[in-house]
Amino acid sequence: MKFMYPTRIVAQENTENTETLLKEKRLQIGLKEQDLFIMKGKSYVILDFGKEVVGGVRILTYKAEESGRVRLRFGESVSETCAELGEKNATNDHALRDFCTELKFYSDIKFGQSGFRFLRVDTLEDCANVQIKSVVVASEVDERPAIGSFECNDMLVNQIWDTAAYTIRLCMQNGYFWDGIKRDRLVWIGDLYPEMRAAHCVFGEVPETENSLDFAQEENPLPGWMNRLPAYSLWWLMILHDEYQISSNKPKFAKYLPYVKELLKQISDCVAVDGEMIYPDNFIDWPTRVLFGKTREEQNDVLAGMAYLTKIAVEKTVAFLQAFAEDTTLCKDILSRVNRKPRKVETFKQIAGLGVWAGDCSENNKRLLLNGGAKGMSTFLSYPILSGVAALGEYETALSMMKEYYGGMLSVGATSFWEDFDLDWLENCNRIDELPKVGKVDIHGDKGAFCYTGFRHSFCHGWSAGVLPYLMETVVGIRLEEIGQKRIKIQPNLSGLKHVKATYPTAWGVLKVEHILKDNGEIETKVDVPQGIEIV
User: Fold this and answer.
1) Candidates 2.60.120.260, 3.90.1720.10, 2.30.38.10, 3.40.50.800; CATH matching 2-139
2) 3-state per-residue secondary structure call for 345-402
3) Which in 109, 160, 194, 497 has the greatest CB count within 10 A?
4) CA quadruple 328, 330, 334, 336: dihedral positive or negative?
5) What are the pLDDT digits (tens) for 181-222?
């Protein structure tokens, strides 16, 4: 466990010697402590720990005379620490982040387990006299070394990489991927696709992926769908293929074959002869959720999205089955039916991105992807959106969209990337590290949508890290050409950058790549290749 001191006092009332909380001290309470933070009567303090963390806090209390009753409020924003339960959807769902407790003299107690950056401590009695030596984060951040890295001549792009890498690190908990560290502790398989791809870019092959695949399969026996959602079973197949391509461990992956074959039959039953999608549920992501009152065009978008996901997942399954010399006739029959019906996306950028991923580079998909730049982007589906834009040859546009969208979160104080974000939220908004101001929009409490309105909105969500595989695959240009990472293609698209350096974890060691844009427009590439890898 790692301990972190506050970096800043955001606000205080009726306190004494507050700045002492910023000092690093021996984390052991003693009988003769003198440099103490004092809270008398009704008082409060809001502490900023500098960045999003996962865990709780450790409070070393010297004295708690009369009454040591306090209220602790953890927040991913300053405004969240000031909200009452129920106000702007402030909740204790999943992770207890707002509760009352009691501090005792000569004590050293840990409280809470959530995702947060800020802590508010309120005394509850007029007679309170609480003397505290230190308040520190008791952090449960994964400490495994980062093997993969990215560095370029654009500092904002570097900051986006670092923040996304930190986000996925925070969400690797308990041997699994958690989508949001203050939210439910479930394994969401759709969320897992960008998470496992991001984690591989930073850490290489990680046990969290196989653990999550196994857990989801055990929890959702057929004829059930992963997380009760057909699209998530399609994502499960995509994860299985990509993880096998990274690992190539046949004995380990052969155990999935019986389940895959039965799941394919179930998918086949949901694709009509004319290519119509007849799944029992068409959920892809929250913004595209088909609810009562949605327009025909939006419903058609979602059906197109299910068709695209089906095509991508079944094509990957063909490659997976062929690696085991298994019959792929049913897969090819499904794909034949999917391809019979033309698709036209009308509204959603993320569906158009999935379309290009699936090989549909129509003018309509191109128009939707490029119109409005980063407006309409999705954190969950940023990977296919940016990859789709790049696949159309618009490399500089893709990087510009990434910078505008992810840079927007950073501009208001984000230190990890969010469950969702809309550029329109930035208009007249308060920073997340400031007290709410009258006349300003509270970007945390006043925004969000669907199941994540207001303060329930997660500000550290693993699925938002899809920018990592995008940067590694498209900008650095590293793509696997053979199962087991034995052949790797390097084809950079610097997207307006002049200098890019990256390290990429493989089963054979660390691949090091450097690209330099020369004055004549050519790219000079230097590669340090581990033995056992062939570079194409």
Assistant:
1) 2.60.120.260
2) CCCCHHHHHHHHHCCCCCHHHHHHHHCCCCCCCCCCCHHHHHHHHHHCCCHHHHHHHH
3) 194
4) positive
5) 999 889 999 999 999 999 999 999 999 999 999 999 999 999
